[in-house]
Amino acid sequence: MATITIPTALRQYAAGYSSVSLEAETVGSLLRGLVEQHPTLGKHLYSEQGKLRSFVNVYVGDEDIRYLEGEATPVTNGDTVSIIPAIAGGRK
Amino acid sequence: MSDIKLSNEEIARYSRHLIMPEVGMAGQRKLKQGSVLLIGTGGLGSPLALYLAAAGVGHIGLVDFDVVDASNLQRQIIHGTSTIGVAKTESAKRRLADLNPLVEVTTYETQITSENALDLMRPYDVIIDGTDNFPTRYLTNDAAVMLGKPNIYGSIFRFEGQATVFYPKEGGPCYRCLYPEPPPPGLVPSCAEGGVLGVLPGVIGTIQATEAIKLLTGIGDPLIGRLMLYDALAMRFRELKLRRNPTCPVCGKFPTVTDLIDYDHFCGIVPELNTLGSQYEITPRELAALLQTDARPYLLDVRNPNEVAISSIPGTDKVIPVDQLAERLNELDTSLEMVVYCRSGVRSGRAVDLLKSAGFRKLKNMVGGILRWADDVDTSMAKY
Ligand SMILES: [Zn+2]
Q1: Residue A48 pLDDT class (50, 70, 90 cuts)
Q2: How far is the CA of A67 from the centre of ligand 1 (A)?
Q3: Are B309 and B295 in contact (CB under 8 A)?
């Protein structure tokens, strides 16, 4: 089991959960498992072409998957995967 | 640098710095010689300006075009009840003059734009974006990279904050290495609609001020290449690695962005009035008159339940928060004349767009939202 932490900004699309634990081999299958449970999260994480959106970064531990093997990055038992979207306070 | 002397008055004021070997006379002189440009004197800018002035940073520039509003005071602690209605730059300058008259404060009562950003930033050693909106974030980043200056980043949302130092000239990444492109409007909520815990910008702004002081004095390990995450509810700090992206459009080997661009356009922000035709709009006064007649429209509130608890328009038929609207269309009837409202008219405008694309036609957005309703129709209503 690996744990995905869901940032405050996206929790409303994941029934309010701050983290979800799932069985998965790679980051990609972990994220898809998460989207299966919470379909509205899908459009916030993936573009229409099914690619991870460029304002959403995903980390395994403290490392960005763009500098590992992307969505094919393996996850092992006890790993923490974090979704870190661009956030901004507002005014505009 | 050593030609700058501290007066006896300064030595007395900064004595708690001077007796620490890590700062000492040399560090305090560097602070006095140093300059910081603060973009925004709001939630993050308040603790930033206060601590930087208190620490004796010689020259502080403040950029803001807003005026102090009562709803700012829950977190913008540099302002006060006595300066409600005063320009934020002026309000901040008055507070800083009281806190430390020995530092020089320059105010720019303007919005930072692609036209003025480089000129505003050029005279300063360190740049800090305390405004926290996407267009200014990208503008500040790009201009700081082009000028080779450090850009101390902070961002907040509800109970969560992030901070880091972007400094490509020293080998670190920039904001575009992290996020090459901004989210399209509506996909990530902003704090204007999400709210923010008042002390949160205090924590993040103070981290930014700490980094500014470290950069100016050259002490400690700067927060370069590391993203600090703070969760106030869990009371937890975490750190992620940030890497320089060799293909970054601004700080990469072959940059494609070499001039400042139109950042509102880049962030997908278009003037609100142009997005909806006027046939899709109704003013609060017009709605109030219509509600007295037999042609009473169906009234949809797209705010969150905790906002509805503050105030709402009598006779509202339904509440569906705008983020749930797409999944709950089946609860609405396309044949009814419908008026949609929210706090200010922005979310309801988005809701009307969404409903239009779902086939609804008998729609109107109440312009100005409940804020304008409180001004024009029911002045006893609470504004928030
Ligand atoms: Zn970069």
Answers
A1: confident
A2: 15
A3: no
CA of B29 to the centre of ligand 1 (A): 32
How many folded domains does chain A comprise?
1
Q: Which residues of A touch B160 (CB under 8 A)?
A: 7-9, 87
Q: Could you give the residue numbers annotated as active site of B?
A: 191, 342
User: Is A91 among the domain residues?
Assistant: no
CB contact under 8 A, A92 and B264: yes
For chain A, positions 33-72, list CB contacts with chain B under 8 A.
40, 43-44, 53-55, 57, 59, 62-64, 66-67
Would residue A92 count as lying in a domain? no
pLDDT tens by residue, A13-23: 899 899 999 99
The type of residue at B161 is G
Q: Rounded to the nearest whole angstrom, what is the distance from the C-alpha of residue B107 to the centroid of ligand 1? A: 29
Task: Check: CB of residue B383 under 8 Å from CB of residue B299.
Answer: no
Query: Is A80 in the B-facing interface, judged by CB distances under 8 Å?
Result: no
Percentages helix, strand, coil for chain A (3-state, rounded to 5) are 30, 25, 40
pLDDT digits (tens, 9 = 90+) for B217-260: 999 999 999 999 999 999 999 999 999 999 999 999 999 998 99
Range(s) of the domain holding residue A23: 2-85
For B7, residues 6+ apart whose C-beta sits below 8 A from its C-beta are: none
Question: pLDDT for B279-298, tens place per residue?
Answer: 889 999 999 999 998 889 99
B225–chain A nearest CA distance, Å: 11
**Considering only alpha carbons, which residue of chain B is nearest residue A56?**
B179
What are residue A24's phi and psi, to 5 degrees? -165, 155
Q: Would you say residue A52 lies in a domain?
A: yes
> Rounded to whole angstroms, how far apart are CA atoms A49 and A46?
8
Q: Which residues of A touch B241 (CB under 8 A)?
A: 62-64
CATH of the domain at A70: 3.10.20.30
Whether the complex's predicted ipTM is more than 0.85 is answered with yes
User: Residue A90 falls within a domain, yes or no?
Assistant: no
Side chain identity at residue B59, one-letter code: H
